[in-house]
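haha ok so turns out i had the wrong file open the whole time. this is the CORRECT one, sorry everyone. sequence first:
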Amino acid sequence: MLVDRLWPRGLSKEDAKIDVWLKSVAPSNDLRKWYQHDVQKWPEFKKRYFSELDAEKEALSELFEYIKKGKVTFLYSAKEQLHNNAVALKEYIDMVLS
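then structure:
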């Protein structure tokens, strides 16, 4: 499941083996541009992103339907492996489900 708002550069939709592109759970364009993968902004990014997710009830409902069906793998295009929206989304989901 791709959880980015933008399609990854250099990857054609025909060649990609992506089952679902759930743009609605990705950070807003404004938040994405503000963050710019600046690790110093990570705590504030998560706070703002979690607030956005709280407001996306329909998108979250769709996401949780996929999760109920079985294993979900979040795909993302960021080079940073520890501080990206997929990591934050996983943390958010773990919080909601606990």
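The helical segments are 29-35, 42-55, 57-69, 85-97.
again sry for the mixup
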